[in-house]
Amino acid sequence: MIGERVTRKEDVRFLTGAGRYLADLRPAGLKHAAILRSPVAHARVNGIDTTAAKALPGVVAVFTAADLKEHSRPLSHRLAVPGIRPLEWYCLADEKVRYVGEPLAVVVAESRYVAEDALELIELDLDELDVVTDVRASLGDDGEESAPLLFEEWGDNVFYAGGFANGDFDAAVARADGVLRETIAHHRIVGLPLEGHGACGHFDRTRGELLLYSSNQQPHNLRTVVADVTALPLEKVRVIAPDMGGGFGNKQHFHREELLIAVVATLVPDPVTWSADRSESLTGSVQSRQQEHDVEVAYRSDGRVLGVRTHVIADLGSPTLYFSSIGPALITTSMLPGTYDIEAFEYRLTGVATNKPPMGAYRGFGQPQANFTIERVMDLVADATGVDPADVRRRNMVPDAPRPYFSATGNRYDTPSFHEQMEVLLDELDYPAVRRDQEEARREGRLVGVGLANLVECSTANLFGFCSQFGGYEMASVVVQPNGHVSINCGTKSQGQGHQTIYAQIAADVLTIPMSAIDVSDGDTALLPHGMGTWGSRSATAGGGVVLKGTRQIRDKMTAIAAHMLRVDGEEVELSEGTFSAGAGRVTFAEVAHAAYLQTFLLPPGMDPGLATIASLDPGLADPFPDATGRMNAGSTFSTAAAAAVVEIDAGTGQVVIRSFRIVHDCGTVINPLLLDGQIQGGFAQALGAVLLEEVVHDAQGQPLTSTLLDYLIPSFSDVPRVHTHHREHPSELLGGFRGAGEATTICGPSAIANAVHDALGPLGVRVLQTNLSSRSIREMIRSAGVKPDPFARALAS
Amino acid sequence: MREIALLVNGEPVSVEVDPREHLADVLRDRLGLTGTHKACEQGACGACTVHLDGTPVLSCLLFAVQADNRSVTTVEGVGTTEDLAPIQRALSERHGLQCGFCTPGMIMQALDVVGRANGGLTPERVRHEMSGNLCRCTGYVSIVDAVLDAAAESSSVAAVPDNEPTQAEVSG
Amino acid sequence: MRPARFDYLAPTSVADVVSVLGADDSAKVLAGGQSLVPLMNLRLAAPTQLVDINQVAELDFLRVADGDLHLGALIRHRRLEFDPEVARVAPILAEAAGLIGHPQVRNRGTVGGSLAHSDPSAELGCALLALDAEVTVQGGTGRRSLPIAELFDGFFTTTLEDDELICQVRVPGTVPGRGWVIQEYAPRAGDFAVASVAACIDLAPGGGCVRVRAAAGGVGPTPIDLGSALGELVGETELSEGLLRHVASRAAEVIRPAADLRASAEDRRDLLQVLLVRALPAAWTRAAGSLSNGGAR
After folding, report:
1. Least CB-CB distance to B99: which of A7, A12, A495?
2. Which PANTHER family match (chain C) (predicted)?
């Protein structure tokens, strides 16, 4: 079944409205929570008066930080690396609020309506403080007087400061024909799963057990954190992640609200549920991507890059986030060299606190910024030298041998040839023809551009590097029922990726039984000792790998039973189409299962009855922390891609239309091309949104201006063209040969689009040094280049 | 609170509601029909689309009292596990859903688009008519394909689900 | 995100609606609800009394009389988009309706509701201003009719009294030789227009322009009448690039744009010119086409 375009096992429940998402869960006696959030971006909290709210009929309880302190432990990012500030905070803001939307109080009531009524009755006594929303101002680099401090005890707003050097950048500059110095701005966006985050908790007082449902990508790790925060014994906490309406990394974190609901559930008699409404998810969830890269590039006139030095300044917002808000930026710096062989590579990384929501994970986890900057650099070098962008890439590409190749920052590329991959792309694109068409279009006064991007994508990391706990392994239970039906439970957590289907495909291949005889479940800590969840393209590699391992263990035991039943040696037994056979002897999968449980006298002497295993697999290779030189291999394996975008821009309106987007993609062994294409296409929509539509905007007072889906624009039906996808399959060294998929277009799509936009705007003298390419930004860039918008600019053909 | 009478997926229902309750909440909280999802509460995403007397409406912008004496069709009234509607089958075959959260709203709008197609649907028309439904997972093209497939399959079939009553049946 | 508590009434006659509005000045009319309810969900609007007019049958009509289109306040945008009579008598309205929000919004949103909401970026108000529509309202002191230009007062405000309800809109029907256009710029299909223009150009059988009516949306506190700016087209027999550039820049001077998330004020002036340069030739060509085929659409 591996490699086949099978439709999904999970579809029918979603298609009939029978999916069970968090807000669909209705335990008896359910109460509803609503959260009072800070209306200002920076203030000292003098007091919160909840008297009137508590008196409102239908209100069960109201809690503030003061009420919860004795019932909970503080949260912390836990990450213990040099250069980072230790930091603790509570579920509800305590002495200060540091961004608009920070939770201050929680109401539990008979309905969400009443709970929200009660929020209006809570009186806040806040002393407003000066606000800082810009990283340069926060660092005091803007020449203004000293910035307000988010955490006075630090003495500045620097949450993290680190650096790394490989080779000698100054020597590279001395040898170079030219040096580029630019700042590339990565703007703030949000992952925005359509279902916001949330949790539903119920504490059984008699047994002292907490059951927490949460829309979370890492239910097992969340359990560890919940036990920590509630001070309940781990074995008394059960976390269930039900069907999830998307995650995209936003639900990878352990949100304050989830932990708040866990704590509150221990204090009220009935189950309590809370789901983020859209405004809460746009203002009070994690946000992503915002960084500034000061980049210096030493290059030769033939386009060869001799060295890159960069200062990555990450705008962390308020870094009050469990598993640290600096995580994505660590990967940005780690992956910055990309597919290019850059020996002299230095970076500084400064993580800066500002009065905005916490920076967190979003599909790609820091890699989109890395890819954008290095791919922008390649094109800027092309501009500076007059060498074609494809040739600049050829001259800088990581050589085809040896493998593994170790990047400047220590990443271990186990990849096939990047050269060959790009040449396949350029052939399929017919790059010379596209360039000729572009010339023709320019003669007609049309702004047409072509952009390339190469991708090497870190997959299957070790969590320890980002939160100083947890790991990179995965677990799965495989149980053959007495009737031969197979039940698999995995520690990954599907948020829509289709794990039920792909794991069943893998198991069906090993066990040679139909997928309909295999059930896959996930997301319940009671069913498996541990699991790392789904993030970082790890589910095919770690999850698929452990399912492969577990089903093989079961198959081997069944083969031994079958051999005994058939009175032959194990090596003589073949399993195909659900039947064990040796010569003329045959015994079916179900018969072996039956024997294993119900006719145990048929088992080989000494063999234990039953067919069940809890398998675990560590794909390995990914480092848990950097070595003494600062190098760290962040991935167990790496996927690759090469992409090209062709765009046309309406100089009148600034609208960018993507005429074509093509990707050559290699994620090793493909499990299900139908689902993989869906990941590529869906990831592309998010890439397009990230550069052309989406932008989280805060005003100078830190007030969010994009708090509904009328203001925060995500791609809609008419915005997203069909991606042309070509999958190549170079299996990895990992079990199953998988490399991990799902993030490629999200990571390299913005780069390819931006390069194409830069190329298109070349005739107007516009240079693209930012990820925000909304039509408004394009109009502003054209104006900044000194070009008055021409009302006669040619409109685009639709 | 006031009592309202609804015909929900062909079944008469009476329920006490507060006038401020969204139809979406009454469907979900009172009637247990949790297939209808809320994802923006601003009329900007289409996830809560249901049919009111056969017309797609946003149930986060409609108060349940406004549906008094009218018929409401939700995704639960469209097809069953054993007998999926053409749009439901097509969405699965085209992989037009991932997390599934937007899917019920997509289905309710797509039924209307297919029903009014008159054989004249183009991909552009589908994109235009579905523009009020947001999906964060798929990148849309698979949904466009599915709607076109369903339209092709349904071209000779009545577009309204069998169990969706006419206005006359409701008032009568 | 749930609305605050309110009392709900659903009268069945205009008279009853008006008397409720007269009795309670905090009462708010609920028509399609596609603008009001989003605000209520955010509790940015929290009326204590909601008057649902959806059961007022006398507001639900669409007819052509004396060549004009008469629209009851409860006519939904979706009806305008597809009704053959609208396409025949006021084709610009059909196209304008198709630009309003999304299909589900158009299924509920009403003519009266859109006008009463008075969003300056609304397509309907812009088109109706270019069409010189007339609005009839009823209040405690009776019925009155006013040119649509006198309805809009400012951002989200009208000149209506608290007890007045928009009952109907009369839209002058198109005539032979009239070309029309509505164009807008929005980031995505269905988004609020950052800037929009609606225009009607009348050409005489000889080919000269005899009348121009135009309005712009999203570029001021109300839809802006561009009639004076475009007046120089009258008498011209050809829409030259120079003339187009000239009237477009005149139009950019009469608007009163504000800055928001989507565009600065300067940006809106530029966008308006882009739209006019693209839109006016389309209206002119339609007008010429209308003449040559004897006045059919």
Report:
1. A495
2. XANTHINE DEHYDROGENASE SUBUNIT C-RELATED (PTHR42659:SF2)
Query: Chain B residues with CB inside 8 Å of C30's CB?
Result: 66
Integer Cα distance of C212 and C203 in angstroms? 9
Are C78 and C155 in the same domain?
A: yes
Last residue of a domain, one of C109, C141, C171: C171
Alpha-carbon distance C4 to nearest alpha carbon in chain A (angstroms): 7
CA dist A734 → A545, A618, A621, B82, C162 (Å): 8, 10, 10, 40, 72
For residues A706 and A100, give the distance between their C-alpha atoms in angstroms, rounded to a whole number. 12
Of C126, C156, C171, the last residue of a domain is C171
Residues of chain A found within 8 Å of residue B143, distances taken between Cβ atoms: 717
Q: Does C251 touch chain A (CB under 8 A)?
A: no
Neighbouring chains of B at 3+ CB pairs under 8 Å are: A, C
Residue A700 CB coordination number (10 Å) = 11
Residues of B in contact with A721 (CB under 8 A): 141
Kindly report whether the peptide bond that precedes residue A404 is cis, defined as omega within 30 degrees of 0: yes
Q: Hey, is the C-beta of A23 within 8 angstroms of any chain B C-beta?
A: yes
* Superfamily of B2-78+162-171 according to CATH: Beta-grasp domain (3.10.20.30)
- In which band, very low, low, confident or very high, does the pLDDT at A468 lie, cut at 50, 70 and 90? confident
Q: Nearest Cβ partner of A792 from C43, C241, C261? A: C241
Q: Tell me if C101 sits within 8 A of C110, measured CB to CB.
A: no
Query: Do the Cβ atoms of B71 and B170 come closer than 8 Å?
Result: yes
Contact A21 B33 (CB under 8 A): no
Quick: pLDDT tens for A15-40: 999 999 999 999 999 999 999 999 99
Does C255 reside within a domain?
Answer: yes
Rounded Cα distance between A345 and A408, Å, is: 7
**Sequence-distant (≥ 6) Cβ neighbours of residue A169 within 8 angstroms:** A296, A298, A307, A308, A309, A344, A345, A346
Phi, psi (rounded to 5 degrees) for A295: -125, 135
pLDDT number for residue B156: 53
The domain made up of A23-129+197-244+251-283 is a member of CATH 3.30.310.50: no
Q: Select from B49, B99, B121, B145 the residue whose CB has the most chain A CBs within 10 Å, as the one to mutate to test that interface.
A: B99
C-beta separation of B70 from B119 below 8 A: no
CA distance, residue A541 to nearest chain B CA (Å):
20
Chain C nearest-CA residue for B42: C38
Per-residue pLDDT of chain C (297 residues; tens, 9 = 90+): 899 999 999 999 999 999 999 999 889 999 999 999 999 999 999 999 999 999 999 999 999 999 999 999 999 999 999 999 999 999 999 999 999 999 999 999 999 999 999 999 999 999 999 999 999 999 999 999 999 999 999 999 999 999 999 999 999 999 999 999 999 999 998 899 999 999 999 999 988 999 999 999 999 999 999 999 999 999 999 999 999 999 999 999 999 999 999 999 999 999 999 999 999 999 999 999 998 876 444
Tens digit of each residue's pLDDT (9 = 90 or more) over A386-437? 999 999 999 999 999 999 999 999 999 999 999 999 999 999 999 999 999 9
Q: What is the pLDDT of residues A576-630, one digit of tens each?
A: 999 999 999 999 999 999 999 999 999 999 999 999 999 999 999 999 999 999 9
Residues in chain A: 798
In angstroms, the separation between the Cα of residue B83 and the nearest Cα of chain C is: 27
C189 vs A contacts (CB less than 8 Å): 716-719
- Express each pLDDT in C260-273 by its tens digit: 999 999 999 999 99
Distance from CA of B48 to the nearest CA of C (A): 10
Return the structure tokens found at A530: 């541990």
Which of the four CATH numbers 1.20.272.10, 3.30.420.40, 3.40.190.10, 1.10.150.120 does domain B86-154 have? 1.10.150.120
φ, ψ of residue C112 in degrees (nearest 5)? -65, -40
**Cβ pair A715:B140 closer than 8 A:** yes
